[in-house]
């Protein structure tokens, strides 16, 4: 019997709460002006009830009669209170997000209402106890303020069931700021701090205890943690890497707040939670730039960047803009990329308060006349040539166009610079130019040979080139691809289990390019210290684990994302190199080396260019490959198997016709008299 009664009462209470919940949800959906009017009516009901109950409490009974004077006092108080509540903004605040400011507004409004009640009672000599206004204040606060707090608590409880439980790693100032910001949102519920500072451990900060890092796994299981938020912006790269390594393998998504230099520069806020940067995984400690080197070719000069819409070009523009040039000129053949770059730079100018003139120009580096006109018109003094096709498979599919852009685009830009008296010309090169296995790499090495050849003549222009590996976050990089694949649930595609690449942050690479340009004397090949190469499969595993997933061979529980090996793409090789030989000397910068490499003479370079142009004009992919093979050290035996036009013509795998061979071989022997005919 008792069990039935208990069950009946529980069902009744549940239905009542269910009805209240349904009513609140319907109330939330009403237009805001209607909700404000209804809330005003409810508050006035609380005010009336508070006045009546205040008298009842003071008398100790409800058997009393209010006369005309008492009712007039109540009416005056009610009218004045409605105006006070409106003027205090009690109906502008959203109850479910009501904060400290709104609570103080309620206290102030009720206090003013009490003063009105006390004044009306005093001047009208109403027949009520003199302590009645004080009791009214307490009751009105309970009604007006308490009702709001109950509604807010209900919604917070409801939101808490929908939010993600998280841990903040770092109980310092940034961690506390992040906690405060998250309290006002409805996405995350912070359950604990974690910090490796023993002085903070077991302390309570803003109501949350600070745990040691070794308690992380227990906290994740206990509170069903989905994310760990790193709030350690001032930590060194090595320390960040250690912390991230300790979190790899835990079933949580690791995210972070921006680094300290981004916060100081005003480019980000503590509340901007983002995914782990790859440079955090690599743990490279960037070497502070040498301002005097950057300023030498930029400050007070007219500077131009080709390929300004690309990843490297856009970052070069940002770094140049902060170095204070006289004028910055952006050139790109992509209208949209140029628009995006300009918009980003305009925002940077606004943050810096910079008024440096910036010119945005559409154009191709294959148009020498356009380049000469620009150089002459604006009096360009420094050129950073970043315009290139760099996607290896794409160039394999479009051989002639890739060579046109990378080789002849460099030649035309260099010639235009020479003819117009540009002071410094810098080619942005790649590690794929070293013993290349693809057309893109061979074309970039040929572009280096062009500058080395031109530099042999005593021109006013200083020609040099900077060679480095992959940059993080650049277009075509594996990092954005892996993130996209992880967000879709996998699989993450890797070309080969052993493939490795050099990596550097795009900011560091751009800074080093600008610094290297100041060291050139003519024909210099600068190589950036990229650190140790990284296996791509290891990178993929880290990104998967730090996103809160496991791989199918690691554990039978949790969500899994597989790694799928798809084979090397056309023209790719397992490992990249930065040097052709071992002849390398240091510079004044610890991250920049000068490579001593053999090159073609100016005459040989011109003859090779002439021959290459003939083959490009005829779209003869085999002929193009033959010239590149002879000119570029380490590039040999490459077959054109993927060029779309070449394949469609049925010429894939074919060699140059025998009738044409003697003329080609004669030219090659003339270029390289010490060599015999090719096989």
Structure described in brief:
The protein is an alpha/beta fold and about 675 residues long.
Can you walk through the features of this model?
It is built from 24 helices and 22 strands. The protein folds into 4 domains: 18-159, no CATH class; 163-276, NAD(P)-binding Rossmann-like Domain (Rossmann fold), CATH 3.40.50.720; 291-470 and 503-530 and 575-595, Rossmann fold (3-Layer(aba) Sandwich); 602-671, no CATH class. Strand 3 (204-205) and strand 4 form a beta hairpin. It has 679 residues and is α/β, with parallel strands linked by helices. The termini are far apart. The longest helix has 31 residues, at 132-162. 50% of the residues lie in helices and 14% in strands. The strands form 5 sheets. A 9-stranded mixed sheet has the order 10-9-8-11-12-13-18-22-21, sandwiched between helices. A 7-stranded mixed sheet has the order 3-4-2-1-5-6-7, with helices on both faces. Strands 14-17 form a two-stranded parallel sheet. Helix 2 crosses helix 5 (132-162), helix 12 packs parallel to helix 13 (335-352) and helix 21 (602-617) packs antiparallel against helix 24 (661-671).
């Amino acid at each position: 019997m008792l069990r039935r009664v208990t069950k009946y009462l529980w069902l009744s209470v549940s239905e009542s709460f269910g009805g209240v919940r349904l009513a609140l949800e319907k109330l939330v959906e009403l237009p805001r002006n209607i909700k404000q009017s209804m809330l005003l009516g409810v508050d006035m009901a609380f005010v009336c009830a508070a006045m009546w109950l205040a008298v009842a409490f003071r008398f100790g009974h409800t058997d009393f009669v209010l006369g005309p004077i008492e009712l007039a006092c109540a009416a005056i108080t009610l009218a004045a209170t409605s105006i006070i509540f409106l003027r205090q903004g009690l109906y502008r605040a959203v109850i479910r997000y009501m904060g400290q400011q709104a609570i103080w507004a309620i206290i102030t409004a009720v206090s003013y209402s009490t003063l009105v009640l006390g004044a009306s009672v005093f001047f009208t000599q109403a027949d009520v106890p003199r302590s009645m206004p004080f009791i009214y204040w307490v009751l009105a606060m309970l009604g007006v303020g308490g009702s709001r707090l109950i509604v807010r608590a209900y919604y917070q409880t409801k939101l808490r069931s929908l939010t993600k439980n998280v841990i903040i790693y770092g109980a310092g100032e940034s961690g506390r700021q992040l906690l405060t910001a998250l309290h006002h949102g409805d996405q995350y519920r912070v359950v604990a701090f974690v910090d490796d500072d023993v002085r903070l451990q077991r302390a309570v900060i803003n109501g949350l205890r600070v745990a040691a890092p070794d308690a992380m796994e227990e906290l994740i299981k206990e509170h069903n943690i989905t994310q760990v938020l790193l709030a350690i912006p001032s930590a060194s790269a090595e320390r960040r890497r250690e912390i991230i390594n300790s979190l790899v393998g835990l079933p949580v998504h690791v995210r972070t707040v921006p680094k300290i230099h981004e916060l100081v520069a005003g480019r980000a806020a503590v509340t901007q939670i983002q995914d782990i940067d790859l440079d955090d995984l690599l743990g490279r400690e960037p070497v502070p730039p040498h301002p005097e080197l950057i300023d030498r070719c930029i400050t007070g000069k007219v500077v131009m960047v080709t390929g300004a819409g690309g990843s490297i070009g856009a970052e070069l523009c940002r770094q140049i803009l902060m170095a204070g040039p006289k004028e910055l000129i952006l050139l790109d053949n992509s209208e949209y990329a140029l628009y995006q770059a300009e918009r980003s730079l305009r925002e940077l100018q606004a943050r810096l308060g910079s008024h440096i003139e910036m010119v945005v120009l559409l154009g191709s580096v294959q148009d020498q006349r356009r380049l000469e006109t620009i150089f002459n018109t604006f009096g360009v003094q420094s050129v950073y040539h970043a315009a290139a096709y760099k996607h290896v498979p794409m160039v394999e599919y479009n051989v002639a166009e890739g060579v046109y852009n990378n080789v002849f685009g460099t030649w035309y830009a260099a010639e235009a610079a020479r003819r117009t008296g540009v002071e410094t010309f810098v080619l942005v090169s790649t590690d794929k130019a070293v013993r290349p296995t693809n057309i893109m790499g061979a074309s970039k090495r040929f572009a280096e040979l062009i500058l080395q050849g031109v530099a042999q003549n005593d021109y006013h222009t200083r020609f040099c080139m900077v060679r480095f590996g992959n940059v993080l976050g650049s277009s075509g990089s594996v990092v954005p691809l892996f993130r996209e694949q992880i967000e879709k649930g996998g699989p993450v595609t890797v070309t080969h289990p052993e493939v490795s690449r050099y990596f550097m942050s795009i900011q560091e690479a751009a800074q080093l390019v600008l610094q290297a340009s100041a060291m050139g004397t003519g024909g210099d090949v600068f190589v950036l210290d990229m650190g140790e190469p990284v296996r791509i499969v290891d990178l993929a595993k880290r990104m998967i684990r730090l996103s809160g997933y496991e791989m199918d061979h690691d554990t039978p529980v949790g969500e899994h994302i597989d790694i799928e090996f798809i084979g090397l793409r056309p023209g790719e090789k397992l490992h990249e190199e930065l040097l052709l030989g071992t002849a390398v000397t240091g510079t004044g910068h610890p991250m920049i080396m000068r490579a001593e490499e053999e090159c073609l003479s100016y005459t040989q370079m011109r003859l090779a260019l002439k021959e290459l142009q003939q083959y490009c004009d005829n779209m003869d992919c085999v002929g193009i490959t033959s010239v590149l093979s002879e000119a570029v050290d380490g590039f040999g035996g490459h077959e054109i198997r993927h060029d779309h036009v070449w394949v469609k013509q049925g010429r894939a795998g074919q060699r140059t016709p025998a009738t044409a061979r003697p003329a080609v071989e004669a030219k090659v022997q003339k270029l390289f008299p010490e060599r015999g005919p090719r096989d």
